[in-house]
Amino acid sequence: MKVSYFPGCTLRTKAKDLDNYARKCAEILGVELCEIKDWQCCGGAFVSAKDEVASKLSSVRALAAARDAGQPLVTVCSACHNVIKQTNDAMQNDEEFAAKANLYMSQDKDPSEAYNGETEVYHYLELLRDVVGFDKIKEAVKNPLTGKKIAAYYGCMLLRPGKVMNFDDPENPTIIEDFIRALGAEPVIYPARNECCGGYVILEDAKSAEKKSNKVSESAANHGAEIIVTACPLCKYNLEKNGSSVPVVYFTELLAEALGVKEDTDAE
Amino acid sequence: MLNKTERQKEQILRMSGVNPLKCMRCGKCSGTCPSYDEMEYHPHQFVYMVETGDIETLRNSDSIYKCLSCFACVDRCPRGVEPAKIVEAVRLTVIREKGVSRITPNEIPALLDDETPQQLLMSAMRKYNK
């Protein structure tokens, strides 16, 4: 299966691991990630104001490119996923916004090719669950992570707003725990798994971010986690910067390890 | 003709799409807000104060920069009010003004370390700058 792939700015720089392992594992699982040509940064945060148009155009362009290729759009970074999915929702449900965005787009696109939210947007985890299937992954595992206690850290951006993200039950999600089980490890359920780490305010109020991230890492540690797994480079940075006693790794790294391709990927 | 406060209120409601009259002031948004302790005015107060036109007070408060955009208040509101959107709209009326930026590009290098993800800088441009 071929899908359009939007890596995002951080996966090209500080979070290369997240990207490299995602690509390698997709290959093994029979999914071809076709990187969107000339993609532009999503902007990192979705601006909810309806009159904010220009800053959402990079997402609209990526969505339209996937539509034109006849493929779903796949993202790995939580932030890119949140921004692109919320933009797609606005293109579907906010006529005034969609009309304005399409006016901008008409500079390099014929108005007859206007984009109105046709593309299906998947997070890589959804691709694993809904397209590949966790059963298939279980079969493909070569090095099961038996006995490892792993805490899924959802944070905010994968889940909320729940109505739009439609990723999992925002208050009681199971997708990452199911993923952890498919790799042979044991998921740790802890209270702060869907609370925000405060990453957005690091530059403005580092103390506030420290307080929130410590709440998350301490909650995971207190419930016996040996590893915290995340899809978000900002969560990883924030938890590590504030001294999480539990190591924080990307979910794609765990997947690569279980599929037996981690060393190959590191060597490339 | 609308006076300045009425204009601001109309603009904030249009940008955010929020109808403050749906709020029953249960305070669940503020109760679930991870930044409650950092805020002078809390999410339920934003909704009420915009409705009553007490907008300058909000615009002049650091509370507009304390929202984490985590959308906990949006998902947990029993009335679908979406307070985070009103907080963001008030903030935008401030930072969109000429010469007003919470953090300017010149200040950023001193705030970085070797591991700072680009994602943080990009989102800061959205939250503090225009």
Write up what this structure looks like:
The complex is a heterodimer of chains A (268) and B (130). With 268 residues, chain A is α/β, with parallel strands linked by helices. Chain A has two domains: 2-124, Glutathione S-transferase Yfyf (Class Pi), Chain A, domain 2 (Up-down Bundle), CATH 1.20.1050.140; 140-267, Rossmann fold (3-Layer(aba) Sandwich). Chain A has helices at residues 16-28, 57-69, 78-93, 95-105, 124-132, 134-140, 162-165, 175-182, 206-222, 233-241, 251-259, 262-267, and strands spanning 2-6, 32-35, 73-75, 121-123, 149-152, 186-188, 227-230, 248-250. Chain A has a four-stranded parallel sheet, with helices on both faces. A four-stranded parallel sheet of chain A has the order 6-5-7-8, with helices on both faces. In chain A, helix 1 (16-28) packs across helix 11 (251-259), helix 2 (57-69) crosses helix 3 (78-93) and helix 5 packs across helix 6 (134-140). The relative contact order of chain A is 0.15. The model of chain A has no long low-confidence stretch (mean pLDDT 97). Chain B is globular and about 45 Å long. Chain B is built from seven helices and no strands. Chain B has two domains: 4-97, Fumarate Reductase Iron-sulfur Protein, Chain B, domain 2; 100-130, no CATH class. Chain B has 130 residues and is mainly alpha-helical. Chains A and B meet through helix 9 and helix 10 of A and helix 1, helix 5, helix 6 and helix 7 of B.
